[in-house]
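Example with several molecule types.
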Amino acid sequence: MNLNTKATAQNTYDAIVVGSGISGGWAAKELTEKGLKVLLLERGRNVEHIKDYTTAMKKPWEFEHRGALTEEQKKTHPVQKRDYPYSEFNESFWVNDEECPYTEVKRFDWYRGFHVGGKSLMWGRQSYRFSDLNFEDNKKDGHGNDWPIRYKDLSSWYDYVERFAGISGQVENWPALPDGQFLPPMEMNCVEKSVKKRIEDHWKKERIMTIGRTANLTVPHGGRGSCQYRNLCSRGCPFGAYFSTQSSTLPAAVATGNLTLRPFSLVDHIIYDKDTKKATGVMVIDSESKENIEFFAKIIFVNGSTLGSTFLLLNSTSEAHPNGLGNASGELGHNLMDHHFRTGATGEAEGFDDKYTYGRRANGIYIPRYQNMGNDKRDYLRGFGYQGGASRTGWHKDVAELAFGGEFKDQMTQPGMWTMGLGGFGESLPYHENRVYIDKTKKDAWGMPVLAIDCEFKDNEQKMRVAMMNDAAEMLEAAGMKNIKTYDAGSSPGMAIHEQGTARMGNDPKTSVLNKWNQMHEVSNVFVTDGSCMPSIACQNPSLTFMALTARAADYAVKELKKGNI
Amino acid sequence: MDRRDAVKSVAFLLGGALSATTIGVFLEGCNTSTDTKGSNLFSAEQDQMITELADIIIPTTKTPGAKAAGVGPFISLMLKDCYPKEAQEVFVKGLEDLEARSKKEFGSSFIKITVKEREQLVGKLRDETVAAQKAENEKNAAQPAAKLTAPKPAGDKYGAKPNFFLLTRDLTLLGYWSSEIGATQALEYVEIPGRYDGCVDLKPGQRVYS
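Resulting structure tokens for the full complex:
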């Protein structure tokens, strides 16, 4: 090593945060607000709030292909194209798969966005707390390891992040879905209100339906504008009306004067010092110039997304950590999970022909988990929740099959049928054999080896899917819907974009990678607070929990730093 | 992610019934990308024919139809840029067959026969497609469902063969309802609603919001 001392000093910060998505943005905000000089590293380009949301104000007819992908785009994005999120509407927010390939031992749809803000720009914004039911399931049924925390450890941090992010929702007192610090809820439409009442009456409130809890502002909040009901969120919001790194955490971090944001900084590995048994910094590949640069800090937060973070840890090998940083347990890379979904039912509502809606609500309804709780026992473990909603389209019941012509056209301009759908989101178990590892036989555009993903859903998930479909039909029937149809469109791991696990938390260093503070058991100044830390995934959308865990870990890290413990 | 809304908006644009090929293009890129024929896909006469065909599916009524909304060039562009070779070939063959039928039954090219005659030809295409779909559905229903021990992968229900009439109808509806004329004149377009009202009284003459 022939490091120039001055260059080292210039490249030294109090903390380094790897990744600028939902959890990385939170880490940067919390650490800078506590007075630390922070370097926030992002492997992709910068996307500036509002200015770089290039499609946000475009009208439908201003998209040449009206949202569809060209065959050319499908060629360069063979994975991203597999489902709807990658479209002409926000094409530039998704990775070019050819530049960053991975190995699918089994099919795994890996959706990635390499830019400042990461997937916080394109996320679904549904924000639900975990409950003790979720924190205790692993221990109760023996799948996975016990969570090292319980709801009481996280509830005040949920409060904290909700107050800042701005989550709209309705208080329900439902034990499996704790209430939060909500902004006013969005409104249900009249069909949804009727379905809610009939389901709750029929099951005597052992099942409930609530409006989706979403990180869209229903009133101005924290200097950001409220939702304009355009439902174009995934293009980036020019009103700042949903939580993203750009709209929320990044400006807060910048305002402290303590933040340095460095885009085009792909972290190759974490530098480990065997004498102090700590990480000293990171080695970055400038993703434009391909130059290698080292940065140093007292604390490192790893927030590169579930699989991005685990890849970085696996790639950070040294004499003391031959199988990846902090991997004496052998669990790093294991217990990969995602939600399974795309099954449920739809029906038609009658009796609301004189009603309509105004505005495009970027939210639906939610039916929280009710299975394997209280008296509800099933032939599978864990459970699922439903997302869904009712809407009125121009489609009319009496239209002939494959109709065309003037009469058909004019009819389609008049509000027609009301339909209501329920789609399940199910928990998958943490299977040890669902794993990722580094495949050195391939290289990406930056000369890095790639990740191999070997993950599948199994029998418990399939049994649950049958119930997800049948229960949906049963509830729509109880709600008086007609012409109910069930569907199972199949579900491949990765598609829910809720991939979690592979660097799990736990009390025992022999069976887990991180402790109850998201701190590596073996390397006390490295914290991992994105989806990789999760010992189980419950059935709720997970990002709110990553936010709360990140804020909690940052608080702990700074206290430990001040005490001289790290 | 926001999957419900995306699926819903496309399903709406296509009038509830999506053909498998179009679902493939919008919601799930076809499994293999293929070389396309690019800009030489259609002759000038065929481009004209597509324009007239779209105007049969969505004609001018009290609001302008597909021709005025530029749907013909949109269909040509979409097939060139966004559809795999197999669908392109089916579409070109469909145009050739339609032209041949027009000459056989009405003694003239599709672009020269009357609107009534075109409607008859398109009606026949529709009836044939409905019958073919029915036969296909019956065949699929006759096959026993496999007992699943693990969730099936996504996407295998979209394997159906492209069909000329379905491609034409899908693309006409999509192109028209999302055009400026279709979205703002036939439907009602509110760029920035500013609020959500979940339960308003339907006003007489209220058009569907695009």
